[in-house]
Design goal:
With 307 residues, the chain is mostly helical. It is built from 13 helices and 4 strands. 52% of the residues lie in helices and 5% in strands. The protein binds 2-acetamido-2-deoxy-beta-D-glucopyranose (NAG). InterPro entries: Pigment-catalase-like (IPR052965).
């Protein structure tokens, strides 16, 4: 018996030590508990927590008038209260959709924090002025009166257009750099739902594409085109963002101008690195210059390495 155990250990030891990564992936019906992903995966997974916090707060506040501090304070983990988040004036349909998005984002924050330690909620600037600044930058001059994301359905949908898409390009960019199955499964799951949210937002805006955003006399489509062009400029890495109507050569198969979903020449989702994402969400075009939605900068090792 003792000999047998000793012999088994001899066989098992070299095997188990050849796995530098100690992973456990327990499938418990639809739930999973995952631990010990390699360090490089941890950095790549914790980075998008910055965006998920912002989405959770913006969607919960916009639809329900409260955020994580009321719904799931343990996830905010003592992070500062978001600046000037508020409830939006929404129709029942849009409020319902956005509330679903809000709770989905809470799930995403939870999923990331259950997988890696993560960090408390960073300071988020969700004030009207913060979104108005994005729109002014997108048009290259101040809109008068300043854009108010919380004023009505169309404004809120346009403000929302600014967010999940950036997260989804980040997940596409992170995927090929991941090593562990646990991290890949998590990122695929997050990407799927973020893309879905982006598609819903784009479809709702597409339906309203020819309507003017009041009181500017500028169409919804033009707003999306301008916001996407701004993100391309800030990201400094070519075209990775497209509005609802494009030149024919940028449409699917170079054959159509309607652009309900953004995609490259193969209609595959664009990818972005954390650096490109920081340049966009800081509104500064520089990963080392915080501002915009993150006045104190984003959290986590990757973002901190630039500050
Ligand atoms: C929030 O953003 C607006 C617009 O950029 C800015 O004027 C305001 O000072 C910011 N608030 C904080 C506390 O950073």
């Amino acid at each position: 018996m003792i000999v047998f155990v000793y012999f088994s250990l001899l066989i098992l030891l070299p095997l188990s030590s050849s796995y530098s990564v100690d992973e456990c992936f327990i499938n418990d019906q639809n739930n999973y508990v995952a631990r010990n992903v390699p360090k490089s995966d941890v950095d790549l997974i914790e980075f998008p927590l910055n965006l998920e916090f912002m989405e959770a707060e913006f969607f919960l506040w916009g639809s329900l008038g409260y955020g994580l501090d009321k719904f799931a304070p343990e996830l905010a983990d003592g992070g500062p209260v978001p600046i000037s988040a508020q409830i939006a004036k929404l129709s029942p349909l849009i409020r319902d959709v956005i509330a679903q998005f809000g709770f989905q984002e809470v799930g995403h924050v939870r999923a990331i924090k259950d997988t890696v330690a993560g960090f408390p909620r960073p300071l988020l600037n969700l004030s009207r002025e913060s979104f108005a600044t994005v729109m002014n930058d997108a048009f290259g001059h101040p809109l008068e009166p300043p854009f108010d994301p919380y004023a009505n359905d169309i404004n809120y949908l346009l403000a929302s257009y600014v967010i999940p898409y950036v997260g989804l390009t980040g997940y596409v960019g992170a995927n090929p750099k991941l090593h562990s199955p646990t991290a890949k499964r998590l990122v695929a799951g997050l990407l799927g739902v973020e893309s879905g949210q982006d598609a819903v937002l784009r479809a709702l805006l597409y339906e309203r594409g020819r309507e003017n955003v009041k009181p500017y006399g500028i169409t919804v489509t033009e707003f999306t085109n301008r916001i996407s062009a701004l993100r391309n400029k800030l990201g400094r890495h070519g075209i990775k963002d497209e509005g609802l109507r494009v030149q024919r050569e940028f449409g699917a198969e170079g054959s159509i101008r309607g652009n309900i979903l953004a995609g490259d020449k193969y209609s595959l989702a664009y990818d972005r690195t954390p650096e490109e994402i920081l340049r966009i969400v800081y509104g500064s075009g520089q990963e080392s210059k915080p501002g915009g939605f993150y006045p104190n900068g984003a959290e986590g090792r990757i973002a901190k390495s630039y500050l």
